[in-house]
Amino acid sequence: MPNAAPHQDPTADLRPGDSYVQSFARGLEVIRSFSASAPRQTLTEVATRTGLTRAGARRILLTLQTLGYVASDGKLFALTPRILDLGFAYLSSMPIWNVAEPAMEALVEQVKESCSAGVLEGTDIVYVLRVSTRKIMRNTLGVGSRLPAYCTSLGRMLLAGLPDEQVLNLLRASPIEARTRHTITEVDALLAKVQQARRQGWCLVNQELEEGLVSMAAPIVDRTGATIAALNISGQVNRTPPRQMQEAMLPALRDAAREVSQRLGR
């Protein structure tokens, strides 16, 4: 699977003047410089990735090390499992965390395919909950994984909850590429797909993210009807063709999303 493009901070132009704590922001940039492709880095590599001086990067790394978020063997630095506390603090504060999991587990048991919940952040989707089947899947996405919204069923379903003007702005800001021979890359065509998802209340994406992967999503809404998250199921197209997924699994998916929405609205 191609590497995701660097994340664009949608709040970058909203930074207040005197209340903006630059040292804190730099610390977050250091944390975000670590990734699956760079799990262990030298001081120089961290400085290069963040645009900080070596001295500045060193101070932040040593602070994170003192707090237990970074470990070092004297040359290479790496995040520690304690960094997960930051992400789980967010997840545990989300009502969807406790509400969605039982519905997702029941859905997986019924359709025998993996189920995920995701939210929109900028031009990406972020997975906040995932229930997998016991089947061996090439797709190894987990909680916290990010993918582009434009070529995923979760992403298009989440975009469908926004006004067209906002959708267009996000699509134009997306680093759109043909991830497979099936990927739609024209902004107008993508907007049409988002509008279709909005009209029908669900979305199916066939092999646009990854060859052989088909997925289908439905929205999770709050008591006002605003889309706050989405559920999807995904599988291999050679085992579950798109039409079969739609006919056999769409009712169960929509029921699960509706159940989560209703529980959140209580």
TrEMBL record:
Boundaries of every IclR-ED domain copy: 82-266
Keywords: DNA-binding, Transcription, Transcription regulation
Keyword Heme: no
Classification via SMART domains: HTH_ICLR
Organism: Ramlibacter monticola
Protein's UniProt keywords contain Metal-binding: no
Residues of the HTH iclR-type domain: 21-81
Superkingdom of origin organism: Bacteria
A GO MF term: DNA binding
Protein name according to UniProt: Helix-turn-helix domain-containing protein
GO biological process, one term: 3,4-dihydroxybenzoate metabolic process
Pfam family, one: HTH_IclR
